[in-house]
Structure formats: C-alpha cells, structure tokens
Amino acid sequence: MTTATKVPVKPLGDRIVVQPLEAEQTTASGLVIPDTAKEKPQEGRVLAVGPGNWDDEGSKRIPLDVNEGDIVLYSKYGGTEVKYGGEEYLVLSARDVLAIIEK
C-alpha cells in the first residue's frame, strides 16, 4: 500500500477525498482522444477518509471500507468537485465508491 499525500481537506462522517486520475489520452487502437470527447474519469486515489458514521445507538463509529492510498472506482456523477490550494479534489460519500482496484 502506498502512503497518500497530506491533503488540507479533512472529510467528515462517511465522506472520502479522492484525487481523480487522468483519463486515457488514446484508445486501445492508438487513436488520440480529443478533449471534447473525453469521458469524465471514474477512477481516483483516496487521499483522506472520514471517521465513519455513528451506529444506530450513537455509541460507536462504523469504519469505512476504503483506506488512504487505495485506488477506487466511483459513480460517474457522484460527489462534489472541490478546488483548494490549486489542486482539484472530489469529495464522495462512501456509498458512491463502487469498487477498490487491487494492483
């Protein structure tokens, strides 16, 4: 597992902060994709993880399934795009994460 960089945005509850990975520049056959035709990325690196939501009794936190440094697939239109300190981040709810990519 790689260590994530320190990010100045601290998520609350079941939220996570993701840095979207660059979309593919070429197709499998080698054709260059113009900026206007590129799809919105759905893959990113988790930079920060919130503490999780409280259980029904309100006595303990339920930890999230993702960790800092994980590469995740997330919903195409999920989350909120945030620009802070010249960097672009995506703040997602844990339910917007579809899968963890194991490399």
Automatic annotation (TrEMBL):
Major site of localization recorded for this protein: cytoplasm
UniProt keyword Thylakoid present: no
Keywords (A to Z) from UniProt: Chaperone, Cytoplasm
Keyword Flavoprotein: no
Subcellular locations according to the entry: Cytoplasm
InterPro entries: Chaperonin_GroES (IPR020818), Chaperonin_GroES_sf (IPR037124), Chaprnonin_Cpn10_CS (IPR018369), GroES-like_sf (IPR011032)
Function: Together with the chaperonin GroEL, plays an essential role in assisting protein folding. The GroEL-GroES system forms a nano-cage that allows encapsulation of the non-native substrate proteins and provides a physical environment optimized to promote and accelerate protein folding. GroES binds to the apical surface of the GroEL ring, thereby capping the opening of the GroEL channel.
Family statement drawn from the similarity comment of this UniProt entry: Belongs to the GroES chaperonin family.
NCBIfam families: PRK00364.1-6, PRK00364.2-2, PRK00364.2-4, PRK00364.2-5
Subunit and interaction comment: Heptamer of 7 subunits arranged in a ring. Interacts with the chaperonin GroEL.
Protein's name according to its UniProt entry: Co-chaperonin GroES
Organism of provenance: Planomonospora alba
Gene: groES
